[in-house]
Design goal:
The chain is an alpha/beta fold. The chain has nine helices and four strands, in the order βααβββααααααα. α3 crosses α6, α6 packs across α8 and α6 packs across α9.
């Protein structure tokens, strides 16, 4: 099974763009961001192979990339493509967010959308009254729940649920996952992956 290696990268141009865009007070310096990258890279290496293998196993989807560039900037709203992460107060928050974004990346690997189209169609019909963001994050949060409980702990999962409760679509997706059970959601989706 091919598992991508995450390559953490700093780009002064990209970081400057985010600095200007966010206009955040106490925006981390380049030196602080580079030092942070060194720390989280070591922490991520502990989990990288185990977590990315598990993501592939439970979704029945394959990684196509040999490596994934992860840009780390001082402050941003993280997203999966291009994979962009922010400096966090807690390194564990960085790891948790990185896992979330890698779940998204797994779904957008070449050929994977087609392979799981029936799963997405089923979920989009089942949750037709929910927002697009909620529909997508039901599956992401279910998978992330599995990862939290297999590699970390319930307290860390609960912290994530609480931290994003101010975001309506994410909160709603977590409510659905907690009501229906993450195992059931993963199972219903995975059986439709062709």
């Amino acid at each position: 099974m091919k598992i991508p290696k995450i390559v953490f990268q700093y780009s002064c141009i990209y970081d400057e763009m985010w600095k200007n865009k966010t206009n955040a007070k106490n925006y981390p310096t380049e030196r602080k961001t580079r030092n942070y990258i060194n720390k989280v890279e070591k922490l991520w290496k502990i989990y990288e192979k185990k977590i990315l293998t598990e993501l592939s196993k439970i979704t029945k989807l394959n990684w196509k990339e040999r490596e994934t560039i992860c840009y780390v900037v001082g402050r941003c709203i993280p997203f999966s493509d291009p994979l962009t992460m922010s400096v966090y107060r807690k390194q564990s928050d960085f790891i948790d967010t990185l896992i979330h974004e890698m779940i998204h990346r797994l779904f957008i690997q070449k050929g994977n959308y087609e392979k799981c189209k029936k799963g997405w169609d089923y979920f989009f019909r089942k949750y037709k009254n929910e927002t697009l963001n909620t529909k997508i994050h039901i599956q992401v949060h279910a998978i992330h729940s599995h990862i939290y409980l297999k590699f970390f702990n319930k307290k860390r999962l609960e912290r994530d649920v609480k931290l994003i409760s101010h975001l309506k679509d994410y909160k709603r997706a977590w409510e659905i996952v907690q009501k229906e059970g993450y195992e059931n959601i993963i199972k219903e989706f995975a059986k439709r992956v062709g």
